[in-house]
Amino acid sequence: MIGFPSGSHKVEVKLREAELALAEGAVELDMVLNIGKALSRDWEYIRHEIKSINDLTVNRGALLKVIFEMDYVTQDELRIQLCHICSEVAVAFVKTSTGYNYVKQADGQMVYAGASDHVLKLMRRECPPSVQVKAAGKVKTLDDVLRVRSLGVTRIGATSTAEILEEAKKRGFKD
């Protein structure tokens, strides 16, 4: 994971993290984009950051997944711009969240929304088919998997993978 968990690392640090991961055999990298720069609409910085990491990753034969952290980047206008930048740079995946950045609610509870249908539809609509969508967070059951798949998601991140696969076997799903 590059720039985990806040994404606030300098581009040079993220590049070094990517280099080390790739040298150790990584074939896919997950990078948390600089959330602060996205919220301040510093699109030149964001484009440079994503392009730099993606260029290194692709040149080493690997794939990059760019994590938006949708619980912090809450405005659709910003989400759309991030999708467009990722599309221009031609990253392999856009991803909803890390699953680690909880947001304090009005009632004091710490929760995260993760992969809402609204966000997944937006990501799929705003990215070309060549940029895949990964749903991370709130995909806990086989029915959740089937629902997000119908929205155009091609990969999920779930802590309940074993339970999902067991339910799929019970229902007769093959490979």
Summarize the structure.
This protein is an alpha/beta fold and 175 residues long.
Blueprint of the fold:
Blueprint: H1 11-23, E1 28-32, H2 35-39, H3 43-59, E2 63-67, H4 76-89, E3 93-95, E4 103-104, E5 110-111, H5 117-126, E6 132-136, H6 142-150, E7 155-157, H7 161-170
Parallel strand pairs: 1-2, 2-3, 3-6, 6-7
Antiparallel strand pairs: 4-5
Helix pairs in contact: 1-3, 3-4, 4-5
Provide structural commentary:
- Helix content is 45%, strand content 14%.
- It is an alpha/beta fold and 175 residues long.
- It has one domain (11-170): TIM Barrel (Alpha-Beta Barrel), CATH 3.20.20.
- Strands 1-2-3-6-7 form a five-stranded parallel beta sheet, covered by helices on one side.
- Helix 4 links the parallel strand 2 (63-67) and strand 3.
- Helix 1 runs parallel beside helix 3, helix 3 (43-59) packs parallel to helix 4 and helix 4 (76-89) crosses helix 5 (117-126).
- The mean pLDDT is 93.
CATH topology: TIM Barrel
Strand content: 5-15%
**CATH homologous superfamily designation:** Aldolase class I
Work out the number of β strands: 7
Which CATH first-tier class would you pick? Alpha Beta
Share of helix among residues?
40-55%
Largest beta sheet: strand ordering? 1-2-3-6-7
Helix/strand/pairing class, anyone?
Answer: alpha/beta
Structural Rg: 16 Å
- H-E order: HEHHEHEEEHEHEH
Q: What low-confidence regions span 5 or more consecutive residues with pLDDT below 50?
A: none
CATH architecture: Alpha-Beta Barrel
